């Protein structure tokens, strides 16, 4: 579904310059660009240590100018001297935008800048505007880190780069929504409010990918007023437009994959045009896979990926190494039209994972299938009269499901607990009824094949289907954060 995002190049300010420049001999002129929606920022390269932010410290043409400006912005310099780089005035806005597009941690920097230039039209200083500083900025950084950590806590250490990119893509589609007020452009507000425009999706996705060493650049289309990611997998760049894969109006539990890992030709077919990017996406390796047709998020549990395919009316297990899928459960129930005289061709089941169980819905019920025993359990999930369930997703110990009278109607989100599905306490490896440091020790002893009491279900904290060092780290971090 198409989105309107606002890419701030501030070219109008450059045009104004040509009409109103008045030079004085050897005296720099000062110009202000209007404050407007922030340019997009992407992957962070580090934080400048306090006390090392003087322009003199970094002013050298031997250092890339983008890196130099970035470090000065981190140090919150009031005036950044770039005279040594001899930047023409008509290029300063594009330069500043490129820096913002490469560094999402600059969410505290405003889009509007002032700058001075010489009689010959070369920039002397850039004067940025800062939205936060001091303790407020430090708190915002910590808030971002915690939110990013929470998202990344679901990533399994055994996953390929493809699987990581898919999981992060689906997470943003499911748990965030497009800002139809066009007010939120940066990563910080996106993470704290749960919504944003295309810049916010793009830079947050890029920051998440950077944590796993997956390179991401951007593609910008002024004609579309839009921006999206270009990520590198297996040495080849591919387009990923998370924004367009998150339906508008917001539809809970939906994650399209139409714009996931597309070539230049493939992304053109989905409606993108006139973009500018440093990369040429010539590989079409993922243009025609079954993934592009899936409209629900993929879920991982017991060491395997699962998804719901409405057209096949089934739940399937996916193998991304061979790009194949196998049906594990056929959905025979029909979703009736409001008249009750006919039914929709597609099935509208969602799929989620919870402690070794696969959660899915029929029109009026939600079930959990234990992947080890094969036993199916009905979840107590009431559905209002005249409505049907059109999808679900699992978060923490609950399932959230969307109900309406039609698949295109106004959705109402309901929730019910999943805690009764298992007979053990998450993290209580030693089965003493308390989750504490003794459980960390129990899991470690289990991994070292030492005598211990260790419930493998309770110890499998990441639902990977096995107990490993990743579970130790998850539990250790949980105890630090909650005690």
What features would you describe in this structure?
The chain is of the alpha+beta class and 483 residues long. Among the domains are: 11-132, no CATH class; 296-422, TolB, C-terminal domain (Neuraminidase, 6 Propeller), CATH 2.120.10.30; 437-482, no CATH class. Helices cover 25% and strands 21% of the residues. It is built from 12 helices and 21 strands. The strands form 6 sheets. A 4-stranded antiparallel sheet has the order 1-3-4-2. Strand 13 and strand 14 form a beta hairpin. The longest helix is centred in the first third of the chain and has 19 residues, at 134-152. It is globular, with a radius of gyration of 26 Å.
Strand order of the largest sheet: 1-3-4-2
Radius of gyration using CA atoms only: 26 Å
CATH superfamily of one domain: TolB, C-terminal domain
Counting helices, strands and paired strands, the structural category is alpha+beta
Low-confidence stretches: 1-28, 34-59
Estimate the helix proportion, in percent: 25-40%
CATH architecture of one domain: 6 Propeller
- What is the number of helices? 12
**In this structure, how is the largest beta sheet organized?**
4 strands, antiparallel
* Average predicted confidence as pLDDT: 85
Number of strands: 21
| CATH class value of one domain | Mainly Beta
């Amino acid at each position: 579904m198409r989105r309107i995002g606002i890419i701030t190049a501030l070219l109008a300010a450059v045009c104004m310059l040509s009409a109103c420049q008045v030079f004085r001999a050897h005296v720099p002129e000062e110009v202000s660009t209007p404050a407007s929606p922030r340019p997009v920022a992407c992957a962070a390269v580090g934080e400048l240590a306090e006390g090392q932010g003087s322009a003199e410290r970094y002013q050298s043409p031997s250092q890339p100018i983008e890196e130099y400006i970035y470090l000065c912005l981190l140090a919150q310099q009031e005036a950044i001297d770039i005279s040594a780089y001899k930047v023409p005035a008509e290029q300063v806005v594009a330069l500043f935008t490129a820096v913002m597009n490469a560094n999402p941690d600059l969410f505290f920097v405003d889009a509007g800048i002032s700058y001075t230039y010489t009689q010959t039209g070369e920039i002397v200083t850039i004067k940025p505007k800062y939205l936060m500083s001091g303790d407020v900025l430090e708190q915002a950084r910590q808030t971002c880190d915690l939110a990013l950590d929470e998202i990344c806590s679901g990533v399994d250490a055994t996953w390929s780069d493809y699987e990581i990119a898919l999981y992060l893509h689906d997470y943003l589609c499911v748990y965030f929504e497009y800002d139809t007020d066009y007010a939120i452009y940066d990563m910080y507000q996106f993470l704290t409010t749960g919504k944003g425009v295309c810049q916010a999706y793009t830079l947050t996705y890029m920051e998440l990918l950077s944590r796993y060493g997956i390179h991401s650049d951007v593609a910008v289309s002024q004609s579309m007023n839009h921006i999206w990611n270009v990520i590198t997998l297996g040495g080849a760049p591919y387009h990923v437009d998370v924004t367009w894969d998150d339906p508008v109006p917001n539809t809970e539990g939906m994650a399209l994959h139409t714009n996931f890992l597309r070539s230049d030709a493939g992304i053109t077919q989905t409606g993108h045009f006139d973009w500018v990017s440093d990369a040429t996406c010539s590989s079409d390796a993922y243009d025609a896979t079954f993934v592009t047709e899936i409209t629900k998020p993929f879920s991982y549990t017991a060491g395997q990926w699962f998804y719901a395919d409405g057209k096949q009316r089934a739940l399937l297990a996916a193998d991304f190494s061979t790009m194949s899928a196998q049906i594990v459960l056929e959905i025979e129930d029909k979703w009736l039209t409001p008249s009750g005289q006919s039914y929709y061709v597609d099935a509208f089941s969602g799929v989620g994972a919870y402690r070794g169980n696969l959660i899915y819905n029929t029109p009026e019920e939600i079930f959990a299938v234990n992947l080890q025993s094969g036993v199916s359990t009905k979840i107590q999930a009431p559905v209002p009269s005249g409505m049907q369930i059109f999808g679900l997703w699992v978060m923490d110990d609950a399932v959230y499901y969307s109900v309406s009278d039609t698949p295109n109607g106004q959705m109402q989100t309901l929730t019910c607990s999943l805690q009764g599905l298992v007979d053990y306490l998450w993290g209580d490896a030693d089965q003493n009824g308390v989750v504490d440091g003794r459980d960390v020790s129990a899991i470690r002893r289990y991994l070292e094949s030492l005598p211990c009491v260790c419930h493998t279900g309770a110890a499998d904290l990441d639902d990977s289907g096995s107990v490993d060092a990743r579970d130790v780290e998850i539990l250790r971090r949980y105890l630090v954060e909650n005690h």
